[in-house]
């Protein structure tokens, strides 16, 4: 009797599941969703996407289903954009309706979701913060004024590599590049290093551990009804990490307020500007918004820049003729000057073309995510309100309808071409586009070019023995950034001055 009851319940469950699924498929067809692989009950297309490098799997699926493709992530409806034309419709024509972000379960640790500029809905406080960033924090005049503080960090990087060169030891490129990017950012925000002394590993580890947790596929994001339960404990594990980051930021805020009271001169860095804004009557920026903004700048800023440096070195070692051309340009433009400064970058068109090509082939943020706040029509299909829009930057950058030899590393394709990262030209969008375009673009541009130019101008680079016979392992690892799966190790040799 009991056994037949269990069978009856199980059969009813399967019938309900199949009916709901069939109903969903029918209503998808009625809603004119873009085509896509057939979703399975409950898991949707998660099995199609797999766990390795989703930007690659989705690009392959798009070859079959089109550059606007439906996928279901668990029970969450999404569409994937894989061409410049469709990206342009999303980023230009409909951007006002699709500039929200999806909820990221783990990101709500310590209430960070409400404070984070990266995931905030595009409403009043987010707009106020973005305006402040564009007009003040990342304005050329402020970045120029803080340049000497960053230059000290470039010198420190060169000193570190020189020591390795003197010992004949290899450098694991991503490590000093990460430290330099993090410190250049920290100097721009707080006029000091946050990671000197015993906390060096502290800040670095916070960012690394935090990003791993955020990028772990999370049941909460695919089945929002169970999000509160935090079944994998990702939000719980991230909570002390965010709390620690907030604590570090609070210390900087408190110290600066004390300095102000003691009549210390202003530093006019990002912290000073944000504190001024906070004190204004009716300001939308409160203590939590400051914590959210500064935490997000470190999360978004350091790994992206250092990963770009590592990919660039990897491509240059695979393409010695490009390496020689960049070095020759540096010699011709800088002459006997050994130190590269941010103001030199505009005189180095081939270096800039090379960085563009690196960001085309290896965009560190391979996919970015939006959420439709209203139903929009794109390419004759409907994207219903609430749908997640995945912009597959990597697929757009390797689309063969846009690029000749899309997988080939050819910086020359950017020489004498007006192709900037502003998001206007959707063929090249490593910083995303529309209202949510990367906030740190102006600083990232300076950081990446200066670090790379310094490393290339001052050193010769050679692969260690095993790399010389096998070449660089260019396999990717997916995370908040897409990095080389095997960290790149190279032996520096100081150039004769
Ligand atoms: C090579 C370096 C970098 C790359 C490739 C990069 C790329 C991106 C991309 C693709 C997005 C998503 C844009 C979109 O959704 O349309 C983004 C967002 C963002 N980036 Fe960057 N980024 C870099 C460096 C930085 C730096 C240095 C900072 C800060 C100092 C920064 C801060 C941010 C922030 C705060 C957002 C979220 C903006 C929002 O949602 O309103 N990024 N970045």
TrEMBL record:
TM region positions: none
- Its protein name is Cytochrome P450
Residues that coordinate or bind heme? 438
Report the family membership.
Belongs to the cytochrome P450 family.
The GO terms describing molecular function are:
heme binding; iron ion binding; oxidoreductase activity, acting on paired donors, with incorporation or reduction of molecular oxygen, NAD(P)H as one donor, and incorporation of one atom of oxygen
Q: Which Pfam families match?
A: p450
Q: Which SUPFAM superfamilies match?
A: Cytochrome P450
Tell me where on the tree of life, at the top rank, the source sits.
Eukaryota
Q: Which GO terms fall under biological process for this protein?
A: defense response; diterpene phytoalexin biosynthetic process
- Keyword terms, alphabetized: Heme, Iron, Metal-binding, Monooxygenase, Oxidoreductase, Plant defense
The family database entries (Gene3D superfamilies) matched by this protein are listed as: Cytochrome P450 (1.10.630.10)
* The protein's required cofactors: heme
């Amino acid at each position: 009797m009991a056994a037949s009851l269990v069978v009856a319940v199980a059969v009813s469950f399967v019938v309900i599941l199949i009916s709901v699924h069939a109903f969903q498929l029918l209503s998808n067809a009625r809603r004119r969703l873009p085509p896509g692989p057939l979703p399975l009950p409950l898991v949707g297309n998660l099995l199609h996407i797999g766990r390795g490098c989703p930007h690659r799997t989705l690009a392959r699926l798009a070859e079959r289903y089109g550059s606007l493709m439906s996928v279901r992530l668990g029970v969450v409806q999404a569409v994937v954009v894989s061409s410049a034309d469709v990206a342009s419709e999303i980023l230009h024509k409909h951007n006002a309706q699709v500039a929200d972000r999806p909820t990221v379960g783990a990101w709500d640790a310590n209430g960070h979701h409400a404070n984070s500029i990266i995931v905030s809905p595009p409403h009043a406080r987010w707009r106020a913060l973005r305006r402040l960033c564009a007009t003040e924090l990342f304005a050329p005049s402020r970045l120029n004024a803080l340049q000497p503080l960053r230059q000290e960090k470039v010198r420190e990087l060169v000193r570190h590599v020189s020591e390795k060169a003197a010992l004949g030891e290899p450098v694991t490129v991503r490590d000093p590049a990460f430290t330099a990017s993090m410190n250049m950012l920290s100097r721009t925000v707080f006029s000091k290093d946050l990671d000197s002394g015993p906390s060096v590993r502290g800040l670095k580890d916070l960012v690394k551990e935090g990003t791993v947790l955020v990028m772990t596929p999370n049941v909460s994001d695919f089945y929002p009804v169970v999000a509160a339960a935090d079944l994998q404990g990702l939000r719980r594990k991230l909570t002390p990490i965010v709390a620690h980051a907030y604590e570090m930021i609070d210390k900087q805020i408190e110290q600066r307020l004390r300095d102000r009271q003691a009549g210390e001169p202003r530093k006019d860095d990002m912290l000073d500007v944000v504190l001024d804004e906070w004190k204004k009557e009716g300001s939308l920026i409160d203590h939590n918004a400051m914590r959210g903004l500064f935490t997000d700048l470190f999360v978004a800023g350091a790994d992206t820049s250092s990963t770009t440096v590592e990919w660039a070195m990897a491509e240059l070692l695979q393409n010695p003729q490009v390496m020689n051309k960049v070095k020759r340009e540096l010699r011709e433009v800088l002459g006997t000057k050994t130190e590269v400064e941010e103001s030199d970058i505009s005189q180095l068109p081939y270096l800039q073309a090379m960085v563009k090509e690196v960001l085309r082939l290896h965009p560190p943020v391979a996919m970015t995510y939006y959420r439709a706040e209203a139903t929009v029509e794109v390419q004759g299909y409907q994207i219903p309100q609430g749908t997640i829009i995945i912009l597959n930057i990597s697929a757009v950058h390797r689309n063969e309808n846009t690029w000749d030899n899309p997988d080939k590393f050819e910086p020359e394709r950017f020489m004498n071409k007006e192709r900037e990262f502003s998001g206007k030209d959707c063929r090249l969008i490593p910083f995303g586009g529309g209202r949510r375009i990367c906030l740190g673009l102006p600083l990232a541009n300076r950081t990446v070019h200066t670090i790379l130019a310094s490393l290339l101008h001052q050193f010769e680079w050679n692969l260690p023995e095993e790399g010389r016979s096998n070449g660089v392992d260019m396999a990717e690892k997916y995370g908040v950034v897409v990095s080389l799966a095997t960290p790149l190790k190279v032996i520096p040799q100081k150039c004769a001055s």
